[in-house]
Design brief:
Function: The reaction center of purple bacteria contains a tightly bound cytochrome molecule which re-reduces the photo oxidized primary electron donor.
Protein name: Photosynthetic reaction center cytochrome c subunit
Oligomer: single chain
Structural class: mainly alpha
Radius of gyration: 25 Å
InterPro entries: Multihaem_cyt_PRC_cyt_su-like, Multihaem_cyt_sf, Photosyn_RC_cyt_c-su
Strand content: under 5%
Helix content: 25-40%
Biased composition (Pro residues): 353-373
Keywords: Electron transport, Heme, Iron, Metal-binding, Photosynthesis, Reaction center, Transport
Order of helices and strands: HEEHHHHHHHHHH
Number of strands: 2
Strand order of the largest sheet: 1-2
CATH topology of the domain at 168-174 and 188-225 and 233-321: Photosynthetic Reaction Center, subunit C, domain 2
Length: 373
């Protein structure tokens, strides 16, 4: 009798499998492949066409506002308490304010940042934060143009996407909250955090590698630089944290490892793609943003806008990229807003920076351009 049921079950499973493959229309979806590495290395990005179309449609840059009428007095003369955009004409200033409302708070309108009874009032924390975010945007588009954002630049919409709070911000992960009982050490692992692709990797690589603006430039590197060890290497925990960061970057940009690396020689710069150099600078740009613009705003944000540990909201790769290797389909969003590519405070006198006493920080080796398919 047992044999009969085994044979019956196997027969049912067999016919169900045949029916599933024969009637459900199972077939490989249409794929799109982009070669970004050297031929023959398999350094391709493979996506389904439907996935590419969906991500493209979800990342369309808004149309720019009509150009402002030329001429007129400066905004700093027309309005009170204009501290960042005082060098714009009044027409340019009003145009940018309307655009910022659409980029950041289309539902709330001007009242999200302003006391409309007194527009010069700074009592709302949103206005004080927005002022600093304008300076950050100008800083990114000018000081990081050559090494990361290029001519595309960023606007408020790049991160906010029509929402007062960007969807992809992060706080330091405090880990599990054990109030009592025996707690075994987990090395910050096995929490299946989204930041590491829901893997068992350490769940808070972002705080260590993206929040500290003064971190050692070699902190992420765990591969030896020689064929045989010549000194004590880094612990396996550091390798896991680095891999967690790489998973975050991969998911944030919607790419796999071969977008930057030739996986036969992960650490070799000469076999990597030019994108690896761009990413190298991108990591440092994120640290710059978090350390010099976000962290100083900790006391400006109300407590309900801070993390569990009282830390300020921070940015990472996903904040701008939103699953694309080029944010907003690579649109040159700052072309129509040149005021976001330079300091616009009126009558600014720039003092030349003194020559550094020490050599600049480590820079990545030049990467040869990959041949085009």
């Amino acid at each position: 009798m047992k044999t009969f049921f085994v044979v019956l079950g196997a027969s049912i499973a067999f016919f169900l499998t045949i029916a599933m493959f024969g009637t459900s229309g199972w077939e490989r979806p249409p794929l799109t492949t982009t070669q970004n590495g050297f031929r023959g290395t398999g350094m391709d990005q493979v996506h389904t066409r439907a996935e590419v179309a969906e991500i493209r449609d979800a990342n369309v840059a808004p149309a720019p506002a009509d150009p402002a009428e030329e001429g007129g007095e400066l905004a700093g003369q027309t309005y009170e308490n204009v501290k960042v955009l005082s060098g714009l004409t009044t027409n340019e200033f009003n145009r940018l304010m309307v655009s910022m409302t659409e980029w950041v708070a289309p539902e709330q309108g001007c009242t999200y940042c302003h006391n409309t009874e007194n527009m010069a009032d700074d009592s709302l924390y949103q206005k004080r934060v927005a002022r600093r975010m304008l300076q950050m945007t100008q800083h990114i588009n000018s000081d990081w143009k050559a090494n990361h954002v290029g001519g595309t630049g960023v606007t408020c919409y790049t991160c906010h996407r029509g929402q007062p709070v960007p969807a992809n911000i992060w706080f330091t992960n405090p880990g599990p909250n054990h109030t009592s009982g025996f707690v075994s050490r987990n090395n910050g692992q096995n929490m299946a955090a989204p930041s590491v692709g829901l893997a068992s990797l350490p769940y808070d690589s972002l705080t260590e590698y993206l929040a500290d603006k003064s971190i050692d430039n070699n902190a992420i590197r765990v591969n030896a630089t020689t064929a045989l060890p010549t000194s004590k290497g880094k612990p396996i925990q550091d390798a896991e944290k680095t891999y967690g960061l790489m998973i975050h970057m991969s998911e944030g940009l919607g790419v796999n490892c071969t977008f930057c690396h030739n996986t036969r020689a992960i650490s070799n710069w000469q076999q990597s793609t030019p994108q690896r150099t761009t990413a190298w600078h991108g990591i440092r740009m994120v640290r710059d943003i978090n350390g010099n613009f976000m962290e100083p705003l900790t006391s400006t944000f109300p407590r309900n806008r801070l993390g569990v540990l009282g830390d300020v909201p921070k940015v990472n790769c996903t904040t701008c990229h939103n699953g694309q290797n080029k944010p907003l389909n690579g649109a040159h969003v700052v072309d129509a807003y040149p005021e976001l590519t330079k300091v616009t405070v009126a009558d600014v006198v720039k003092t030349p920076a003194p020559a550094p006493d020490t050599p600049p920080a480590e820079t990545p080796p030049a990467v040869p351009a990959a041949p085009q398919p």
